[in-house]
């Protein structure tokens, strides 16, 4: 059976002054909205504090996939789960107690995700696979949209797919996903694709989401 593909547009590069309208453009064709939370500590950029993120989560017409790029993630992650996110992803490099934080995300009813920056090896974190619903392999250094896809991360995507096997753990890639790169990542074993600038800088964002899904599904195995 072919792997099920999910497309999760990132609103990082959307027009935040009219976010409801931006989300409405792609809601019907997208699986989740990817919400990049940055604190200017773990990454050199700031996006939303918890209060403004909560407003987005409450008003979002489709499930929210929160990607927390924050230093005090052990405290913040459960709040995002409690706020109603469908999934909450923490960075292995930022989290003091990975097991406890993954468990507390799940305890609030959200899917628990574990993200790795480009320099982090999946072999160092495979022991958490029973506690995660999703691995996120970053295909850029986290912090900014619009960066170049790192082809050299595909070995890590393949290694993560081997660890997951046929378990229902999502394998997400984030950074530089476009019509030029999505098939490469899908062939390596990714099934869940974040796309920011490719979607929101397209003249027809919904059509772009559809195209990305077709390309990924076409090579999924
Ligand atoms: C980067 C963020 C990404 C970003 C992706 O740190 O985690 O989600 O928005 O943007 P693109 O698709 O433009 O690389
Ligand atoms: Zn992200």
Automatic annotation (TrEMBL):
Does Methyltransferase show up as a keyword for this record? no
- For this UniProt record, give its keywords in alphabetical order, as a comma-separated list: Isomerase, Metal-binding
Q: Keyword Oxidoreductase: yes or no?
A: no
Q: Can you name this protein? A: ribulose-phosphate 3-epimerase
Under CDD domains, the record lists:
RPE
Transmembrane stretches, by residue range? none
InterPro entries attached to this UniProt entry: Aldolase_TIM, Ribul_P_3_epim, Ribul_P_3_epim-like, RibuloseP-bd_barrel
GO BP term (any one): carbohydrate metabolic process
Question: Mind telling me which GO cellular component terms the entry cites?
Answer: cytoplasm
The entry assigns this protein to a family as follows: Belongs to the ribulose-phosphate 3-epimerase family.
Catalyzed reaction equations: D-ribulose 5-phosphate = D-xylulose 5-phosphate
Q: Which co-factor is required?
A: Zn(2+); Co(2+); Mn(2+); Fe(2+)
Q: Which organism is it from?
A: freshwater metagenome
Enzyme nomenclature, EC number? 5.1.3.1
Provide the GO MF annotations for this entry.
D-ribulose-phosphate 3-epimerase activity; metal ion binding
């Amino acid at each position: 059976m072919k792997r099920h593909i999910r497309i999760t547009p990132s609103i990082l590069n959307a027009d935040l002054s009219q976010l409801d309208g931006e989300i409405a453009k792609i809601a019907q064709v997208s699986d989740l909205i990817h919400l990049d939370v940055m604190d200017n500590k773990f990454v050199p950029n700031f996006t939303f504090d918890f209060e403004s993120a909560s407003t987005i989560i409450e008003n979002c017409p489709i499930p929210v996939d929160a990607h927390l790029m924050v230093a005090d993630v052990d405290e913040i992650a459960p709040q995002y789960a409690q706020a109603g996110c469908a999934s909450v992803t923490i960075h292995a490099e930022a989290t003091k107690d990975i097991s406890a934080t993954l468990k507390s995300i799940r305890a609030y009813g959200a899917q628990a995700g574990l993200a790795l920056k480009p320099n982090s090896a999946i072999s160092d974190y495979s022991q958490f696979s029973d506690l995660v619903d999703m691995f996120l392999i970053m295909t850029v250094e986290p912090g900014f949209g619009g960066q170049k896809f790192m082809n050299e991360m595909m070995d890590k995507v393949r290694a993560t797919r081997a660890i997951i096997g046929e378990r229902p753990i999502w394998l997400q890639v984030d950074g530089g996903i476009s019509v030029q790169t999505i098939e490469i990542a899908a062939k390596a074993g990714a099934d869940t694709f974040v796309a920011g600038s490719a979607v929101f800088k397209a003249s027809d964002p919904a059509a772009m989401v559809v195209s990305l899904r077709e390309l990924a599904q076409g090579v999924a195995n």
